[in-house]
What we know:
This protein is α/β, with parallel strands linked by helices. The chain has one domain: Spore Coat Polysaccharide Biosynthesis Protein SpsA, Chain A (Alpha-Beta Complex), CATH 3.90.550.10. Helix content is 34%, strand content 23%. It is built from 6 helices and 8 strands. It has helices at 15-24, 47-52, 70-80, 99-109, 127-136, 138-145, and strands at residues 5-11, 34-41, 60-65, 85-88, 93-94, 113-116, 119-120, 160-163. The strands form 3 sheets. A 4-stranded parallel β-sheet has the order 3-2-1-4, with helices on both faces. α1 (15-24) links the parallel β1 and β2. The protein is globular. The two termini are 32 Å apart. The model is unreliable at 123-136 and 147-164 (pLDDT under 50).
Amino acid sequence: MTPRFSVVVPTFQRRDVVVASVAAFGAQDFGEPFEVVVVVDGSTDGTADALRALSPPFPLAVVEQENRGPAAARNRGAEEARGEFLLFLDDDMDPVPDFVGAHVRAHRDAVGLVAVAGRILPGGAVAHSMRSLSESSPRRRRELTVPRGSSSSSAISPGVYSSR
Length: 164
């Protein structure tokens, strides 16, 4: 059965972090098929072999390419994905058990861009920038969590952000 959702994860030189992130998708509380496509962007640290050694309860595609950067890796993952919807996740993000399900609900209930927050794995590169956004920019955080045109000051729902 073709999955409706494809999660695309670009990675470069973060074998242990991306393996932990991909393994965490095994705990998804979601009843529909989904796949994970990891694009190994020129890594020389054994990332592709470590990912292929996993036995996840979902289809896992490991795609290797020469190092061309995260944007090119995301695009390659989008080309390889089989799902109708693409979910992009950084390699150092820990998908909470409702990650895919939250996207399903957000796409069903919202119009526009949908992003679901997750936990950042130790050693992840985005940890500093996420902490910076969280600590030093409450106005920007509100902008990301309140639908445009809404007078409400509360988020759509915990962990789900939508731009309309």
